[in-house]
């Protein structure tokens, strides 16, 4: 396969829809993104990295960080306990909904809705003492980009407009499902969501899932089974309330963020990271989904 | 791979849990099943068929029939319209719930919850004039078992105890999302759910999904894309409100029924059908999930 | 108090809003009503009857019949059992919602939402053998209008468009909370809802609640306590999902119907029945609520 | 009527059920209450005050304070705006639920569920600069008890265990329905809920609702209409998710608190305040409801 050609074809497929949808504007820092920006990167398990468009431009990774917090928490030896505190079923409701959380007594449905990510962040904070720092260092090491960091303005803005996340965290705490103080957990949550990275950085950082658990340096982060399992949770829960549609169209495990990025995994082969700031109603990038749909349709790279 | 050895290992893994859980007893005909019965069959795209345990015993396929109604409806040329009448997102609520149906104005969340299957059955009835007959003939042709048929006692019993399904169907009709009379649609729905088949029959009948849309006789039922897409919907929605857990443990597209069967697809390789009547709380067979989990863990046959 | 003057003042208050809102049009027979029609009747415990506007015009009483089915069911000696099958709490959801019914396992929240009225009709059918006939005969006797009857065209039309009520009834039956066949219960339900009566007829027929349980002929239908209790249920649950607002504005127990009528009770004093076909979003007559609000504000006739 | 005799009869009726139910124990200070304690006070518009049992013992008024915050907020000239920020319909869900709040976009259903009381407290804080102080001063003036005050230990304990209320407040803030900082609003909320008062104090303090808006000193707090309207909201929403049952049994407007108190209004006649710490599942005092039920049944003092 000519990777660069296929990336270009995917970009061409996405071009007509760029700007369709709505840039997340609940905080000013995100609202300033250019709705016509677009990047797409491919990293293979063989070490190749390619990209088209704005693939080296940094953007706010937002919920894509949840993939890494989950992996790092599961990499600890006490990981099994995590699944008593958070489920792994699709939620059927928006990513920041409180409804299901009440019906299910403070146990978030899965690690990728906001409530679940708060619980995973809490666990990672207990395990490491610095949840956001652990994510940042992991991303730096895997991407080889030592300047990758939290955008402090974004983190501060998230905190300032974060009443709904504060509600979720206090609600979880009311069910005794937090180990650390609400304020500390939210601080780390905002800090890892506000990391800025490029398509290139994220494609490289996600390769451990394509390599069945192995990091860039060959060391093992996760067992083969756990890597497979994270892919399963990504496929069923990784793209907000549109996971079914994403599986139907793209057919790959993936994690999206309201910054417009989507990181997708092709087990055994590599990763794709697409970015376009304009979002559909479910909160997924219109351009990124379109490009990934085209890429997998053209190449047959799908898990199905 | 020594298929028979792997099947035997999977059966051995399931043996300790056989009888754990609860046989569906909302109708007498199902309640009479032996909770310790167990069968497992494997069919490959190369034409091999193997089985262990009670793999040639007939059981009530129940919701597994929803996979075939969907495939047959999508195989028609007017299939695209179907996705306006039924969604493809995981539901997050029990398979026979009315709550989501009301919130979403009569559009069932996906084709595999009861409400969605009623809509698909309605469509197939319009397309063929005999929805249950179409499913039966397809299963006979693919399995090569000409005596495969609806168990009329089961169908009659379902209808007699079917107030909740009648409620779903009338509710859907109240949103103008049925083309045929409620009674006719329900009649076909009960008839295809009450088909009796063996693990062997179902493994063979499901092979078109492993063969990317090709039937046993080599003719094409579905496009490659549509076959891939049905697998995606199976993975995200095929095992009731435990699709996330099934993906996590087994990692294959699959469809379960309250008769205790689960039909799973290994794209490009083959199918597995496991059967054990005792169900977990989500309505999936405890023995079948355990056996499939063991098989995929031992063999690495997973989509992730 | 000059009753005729106060009725006229109330009519004057309502006149500007007549036609505001929307005539119920889910069946043709109701949709044909004149949105500018308006009537208001007053009946006192002393035997006076007055009216203004179209107070002697017949209209479809619809849900107002639920007040009478409840009273007649409670008048039987086995009445206490009824409160195990239906609650008496406000519902917080629309009158024909299935959501709460599922959350509460087939026990309708109160006798005045559709689901609750189906259960009460079922009970009255068991008690009398002819639920709709019992309501009709009671209304004839109390109003002194021997020609008062079910509008068969309306009843037939309700049945034809009644998929949502059929869904409710089947759903209740799925929880074993119906004693009679779904079709029989629905037939009686539609027949008593389709009774046509005038403001005059209904004001007279409701007087037993102002007389603490005594019928027009002086015989006792209900104990003083039970009459008081029906008034309490009317106040908290009688005007669909706007009972709080009706209590706030009008301050009287009352029952509304989508035909545009509202029957209100002034305990110890009398009854008021207002009618105007155009409805607000909760399903209550805009003109009738406005007139009753004006009447109670001007006269101080309120329970508070 | 011999008031003391009727109070004694009501106490006698309640005695057998004292201790039935469960003392609120989510904070230690409440959990220490004696489940067999019981008091009942009556204050009439003519100036009589009577009591039986522990009617002069102080207890934590908890949600009964919500009645006073509402009255004081409505007494301001800008009161109409309040009804755009909080509804007046019964909720149909538990008093501290977040579900309805999400469905209704941050507008609490009524002023007496926790979410609604947070909004009213926020408004009163804006109007007065000291919401808890305003409630305290009003209660002191009306009861003539200058030592009546917030129990600081209870308030501190509420704050410490108040994750669910913090979740509600942040959630409301996320819909821009708070004017003051979350922490400030919650501080005042806990402070007025933690006021300690006796049955005697509360019966006197509530008399303005029986006097159609007039305070103890003859000055007008509320218009006649507004007093009537608060009574209406009390009747439909004042006793948590059991307002329908309370109306059915007692037939009076009333407000309950998890401290075990219930303050009821007999418009034009007087007030009753009953107290017993053991609560039913809805959060209302078993003894207080029983005593009020007996009193109104024996005396005919009911609004119906």
Structure write-up:
Four copies of one chain form a homotetramer. Chain A has 304 residues and is α+β, with helices and mostly antiparallel strands. Chain A has a single domain (3-299), classed as Beta-lactamase (3-Layer(aba) Sandwich), CATH 3.40.710. In chain A, 47% of the residues lie in helices and 12% in strands. Chain A is built from 15 helices and ten strands. Chain A has helices at residues 3-14, 28-31, 65-74, 82-85, 99-103, 114-128, 131-143, 152-160, 163-174, 182-193, 199-205, 207-210, 224-237, 243-249, 286-299; strands at residues 22-23, 39-44, 49-53, 59-60, 149-150, 195-197, 254-256, 261-266, 270-275, 278-279. Chain A has a five-stranded antiparallel sheet with strand order 3-2-9-8-7, with helices on both faces. In chain A, strands 4-6-5 form a three-stranded antiparallel sheet. In chain A, strands 1-10 form a two-stranded antiparallel sheet. In chain A, helix 3 (65-74) runs antiparallel to helix 13 and helix 9 crosses helix 10 (182-193). The first copy, chain A, starts with a helix and ends in a 5-residue tail after the last helix. Chains A and B meet through helix 13 and helix 14 of A and helix 13 and helix 14 of B.
């Amino acid at each position: 396969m000519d990777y660069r050609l296929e990336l270009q074809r995917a970009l061409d497929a996405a071009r007509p829809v760029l700007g369709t949808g709505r840039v997340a504007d609940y905080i000013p820092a995100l609202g300033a993104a250019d709705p016509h920006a677009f990047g797409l990167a491919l990293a293979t398990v063989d070490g190749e990295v390619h990209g088209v468009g704005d693939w080296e431009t940094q953007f706010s990774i937002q919920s894509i960080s949840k993939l890494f917090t989950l992996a790092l928490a599961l990499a600890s030896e006490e990981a099994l306990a995590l699944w008593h505190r958070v489920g792994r079923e699709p939620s059927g409701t928006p990513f920041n909904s409180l409804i299901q959380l009440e019906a299910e007594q403070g146990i978030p449905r899965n690690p990728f809705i906001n409530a679940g990510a708060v619980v995973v962040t809490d666990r990672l904070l207990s395990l490491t003492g610095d949840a956001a720092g652990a994510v940042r260092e992991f991303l730096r090491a895997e991407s080889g980009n030592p300047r990758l960091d939290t955008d402090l303005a974004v983190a501060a803005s998230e905190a300032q407009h974060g009443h709904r996340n504060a509600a979720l965290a206090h609600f979880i705490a009311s069910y005794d499902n937090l180990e650390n103080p609400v304020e500390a957990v939210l601080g780390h949550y905002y800090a890892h969501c506000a990391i800025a990275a490029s398509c290139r950085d994220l494609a490289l950082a996600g390769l451990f899932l394509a390599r069945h658990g192995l990091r860039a340096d060959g060391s093992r982060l996760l067992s083969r089974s756990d890597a497979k399992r994270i892919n399963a949770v990504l496929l069923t829960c990784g793209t907000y309330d549109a996971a079914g549609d994403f599986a139907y169209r793209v057919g790959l495990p993936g994690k999206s963020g309201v910054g417009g990025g989507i990181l997708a995994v092709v087990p055994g082969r590599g990763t794709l990271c697409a970015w376009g700031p304009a979002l559909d109603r479910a909160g997924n990038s219109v351009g990124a989904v379109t490009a990934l749909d085209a890429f997998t349709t053209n190449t047959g790279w799908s898990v199905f």
